Amino acid sequence: MKINISQVKHKNVNALLMESDLLAITIIPESGAKIRSIYDKNRKKEVLYQSERDEFRKSICGAKFDSSDASGFDEIFPSIDECFYPTSPWTGTIIPDHGEDGLCLGIIKLTRI
Predict the structure, then answer these.
(1) In what side-by-side order are the strands of the sheet with 4-10?
(2) Consecutive 10-residue runs of the chain (113 residues): their mean pLDDT?
(3) Contact indicator for 77, 97 with CB cutoff of 8 Å
(4) Exposed/middle/buried for residue 102 (C-beta within 10 Å: 0-12, 13-18, 19+)
């Protein structure tokens, strides 16, 4: 099966489109490789929720998850809610809302309190 990968524009952001005869998958690298769309070509159906907004809302470091674009698929690791890291060596370190997304892909470093 042949898979084509191309750079595309999705609304107001750069994206990658991975496409085969069966699926078209759109990924937004700037937002932690967020999977924005999985389109099933056989069924002619979008699998993931799609926002009706004209612009894609990027995550802002430290902001609540619901202030960013809620469409597509997000990994929620290591936490779905803001909490404190429970074990050593980071005991007491704040894990932001929706974990890794809130860590801003390494911009905030885990430090002990």
Answers:
(1) 4-10, 13-19, 23-28, 34-40, 45-46
(2) 91 90 90 84 92 72 63 68 82 72 46 42
(3) no
(4) buried
Domain match, 56 and 14 both: yes
Domain-located, residue 53: yes
Whether residue 70 lies inside any domain: the answer is no
38 with 81, same domain: the answer is no
Beta strands in the chain (DSSP E): 4-10, 13-19, 23-28, 34-40, 45-46, 83-84, 94-95
Q: Judge if 98 and 48 occupy the same domain.
A: no
Find out whether 108 and 96 touch, Cβ atoms under 8 Å: yes
In this structure, the answer to whether residues 55 and 81 fall within a common structural domain is: no
